[in-house]
Amino acid sequence: MDQATNLRELMGKNREIRVISVASGKGGVGKSSISVNLAITMSKLGIRVLIIDADFGLANVDVMLGITTRLDLSYFLRGEKTIHEIIQQGHEGVRFISGGSGVNELINMNEDQLSELLSTIIHIDEPIDVIIMDAGAGVSNTIMQVLLASTETIVVTTGEPTSVLDAYALVKTIVKHDATHPLHVLANKCDKAIEAQNIQTGFVDVCGRHLGKNINPLGLISYNHNITASIKRQIPITVSDPHSLTSREIEVIARAILDMPSERESSGILSRVFSRVLGTKA
Length: 282
Ligand SMILES: Nc1ncnc2c1ncn2[C@@H]1O[C@H](COP(=O)(O)OP(=O)(O)OP(=O)(O)O)[C@@H](O)[C@H]1O
Ligand SMILES: [Mg+2]
Prior knowledge:
Layout: H1 2-11, E1 18-24, H2 31-44, E2 49-54, H3 61-65, H4 73-77, E3 88-89, E4 95-97, H5 104-107, H6 111-122, E5 130-137, H7 141-149, E6 152-157, H8 161-177, E7 183-190, H9 193-211, E8 215-222, H10 225-233, H11 237-240, H12 245-258, H13 263-278
Parallel strand pairs: 1-5, 1-6, 2-4, 2-5, 6-7, 7-8
Antiparallel strand pairs: 3-4
Helix pairs in contact: 1-6, 1-7, 2-12, 6-7, 8-9
Magnesium ion is lined by residues 31-32, 55, 60, 134.
């Protein structure tokens, strides 16, 4: 783990690119869908985003983006292509690097290869503001290295007790390696807002009390079967249905991560400024 910690220190706190990893304890909770839709939403907000499919060897972000590519990270590992040459263009100007599917070299990377790969990614010389890394599920050493190389991690959970418990195990493992690593929690596939609220406050509270770890609650994404339909069509929901509840929920989350005021807040500020100038009441 020292190598991963060194990577973070190497990056320095003052590096301007934010590297946001998306992780979960349990699989299938929505990491890849969230990574893709967050990236597209941030891009619409004017942020230059690169998605890295860091579920090495089991990658499927390209399928979700509807991108057909042979060029994955294995070309970089073999020295056949530079990291810049394997970048693809997706929707809304989002850039993307494929983690490869069923590629043995990527599945069986050794620690040095992984460190070199992560170091290249986080130091990438491209005009980008945010890197989103879709990590695999679980607490393996590879996943820990990916998470600790990022500047912050979004832990995704659903309301299922198994998913919440696994998310807690993940947080515990991260804290063990680096107690200062910034963490957010996001509740996905929620049936009711109150359920999401309970998951978040409960989770934040338990992590605070038992691990002494402050976690930032990011909000919720409701259960929406259209997300699955959009994956089948290979068009992310934020592209195919930008006004859907899911797209709006993702925008709230993107703005929270980027620390941007919501549209309502900013228009409130604007109308107050205008009314002051015009001498009317807001
Ligand atoms: N908010 C949601 N409502 C309904 N279905 C959802 C939602 N989010 C994701 N899904 C569905 O859940 C399934 C798993 O999603 P996804 O592949 O994004 O999860 P993952 O965490 O990346 O999985 P893995 O751990 O296998 O990488 C997909 O069928 C997706 O359509
Ligand atoms: Mg996934």
